[in-house]
Amino acid sequence: MSEKVCDHTSVGMIVFNEDREILLIERKKPPFGWAAPAGHVDGDPSFEEATVRELREEVGLRALSCTLMLDEKINNPCRRVDGSWHHWKVYKMNTTGEIEQSEDEVKTYHWTDAGILRHLLEKTQRYENKEMTEQEWEADPGLEPVWKHIFDKIGISLMIEGEEEK
C-alpha cells in the first residue's frame, strides 16, 4: 500500500461544553500531542464538509453549525508524504451527540479548562526548547505545536476563561 500524499489542507474543530471547557484529544498517531479534533480535507468538496466528516470520525459528534475562526497557511508537519505545511481553516462548532472516540486515531479525550490548558502549553514550550526527548513527549505530550500556534492566534485561553473573544 502506498503512502498518502499530503493535500496541504486541514480543518480543525473547536468544541466547547456548557462550562466553557474545550474538547481536546490525545493523538494515537504522529504528530503526537493533545489537539482539537482535526484532519485533512482530502476529497471533501469544501472545508466545511470536511469538518462534519472529521468531527464524526474522530469523536462521534454531529455538527449543527460552524463559524470560521482562523484561515491561515501554517508551516507544520504531518505524517503524510510532503506534509510540511497546510492551509488551515479552524471552526468553532455547535454540536450534538455523545462523544465516541475513534479507536484508530484517539488515545483519549478531555474537556479542558484554562488550568489544564496552561499546563499543556508549558509542556509544549519545554518540548520546543528541546528540554524533553521525543520519547518523553510521546509518552506524556503537551499541546501539539501547531495547536499552540492556532490557540494563540484565536485567543482560546481568553475564551476558556470567559473573557471577550479577540
Structural key phrases:
30% helix; 5 helices; alpha+beta; three-stranded antiparallel sheet; 166 residues; single chain
List the helices and strands and how they pair.
Blueprint: E1 9-15, E2 22-27, E3 34-35, E4 38-40, H1 47-59, E5 62-74, E6 86-96, E7 106-112, H2 114-128, H3 134-139, H4 145-154, H5 156-160
Helix and strand sequence: EEEEHEEEHHHH
Per CATH, what is the topology? Nucleoside Triphosphate Pyrophosphohydrolase
Query: What distance lies between the first and last C-alpha atoms, to the nearest angstrom?
Result: 45 Å
Number of domains: 1
Number of helices: 5
Strand segment count: 7
The largest β sheet comes out as:
4 strands, mixed
Radius of gyration: 15 Å
Strand content: 25-35%
Structure report:
The structure is a single chain. Strand 2 (22-27) and strand 3 form a beta hairpin. The chain is of the alpha+beta class. It has helices at residues 47-59, 114-128, 134-139, 145-154, 156-160; strands spanning 9-15, 22-27, 34-35, 38-40, 62-74, 86-96, 106-112. The strands form 2 sheets. A 4-stranded mixed β-sheet has the order 4-1-6-5. Strands 3-2-7 form a 3-stranded antiparallel β-sheet, with helices on one face.
